Amino acid sequence: MQPHFGHRARLGLVVPPNNTVSEAEWASVLPDGVTLHATRFRLNPLARTDAELDVLREGLFDACRMLAEAEMSVVAFACTAPSAVSPRAAMEAQMTAACGLPAATAAAAVVDALQALGARRVVLMSPFSAAVTQHEADFMAREGLQVLAQHSLGHGTYQPGRRLEIHRIAPADVRDAALAIDAGGADAIVLSGTNLVTFPVIDAIEAASRLPVVSSNQALLWSALRKAGVANALPLGRLFTA
Fold it and tell me: Where are the alpha helices (DSSP H) in 33-88?
């Protein structure tokens, strides 16, 4: 018997405690027959040591296992910097091993999306500090991309109890910041950050820059849908029509 909702696919999304954008952006464009089911877990977004990464991964894997109990088609991790580890498929493989489902991470999805678009040279905009933005640029370089320019909006990263303002950045300001980057010689513009509102301005940035745009939430949705067997075109830039 087919389920009444999610008869084509059920997307399981794992987000940080403070993220209010990923679910909203995804829900605004989901194809008919696809449903979204999200959970949160505590994380250290700057985890670097083996011990810190082990704690992060176990929380992530536990969240994936809970989503698997609801018979998801795929699980997705909506946090870019903590998933920016090489090789990029490693964390996805670990998620799959933990819960038995296809898996996608934001950082891996961004690189996969750029490859699907044939982009090798990119410019990067991040809402975070210069150090976090550099971490993501270094990850992209390890994955075979050339980051020609990068720009940080200077916001802090998640910590328990810290109020963040990334979700309050107006889409028009995201658009203007992206277009202010010197994209000469670039094949694509990358907008990092899953708590950054990007869906309303992807088409406008592409039209003004004449370059494809890849954002964290857009790429992660693209990856999750395709791993769930759904290949609809969506009004989210060239990535969903390539």
Answer: 50-69
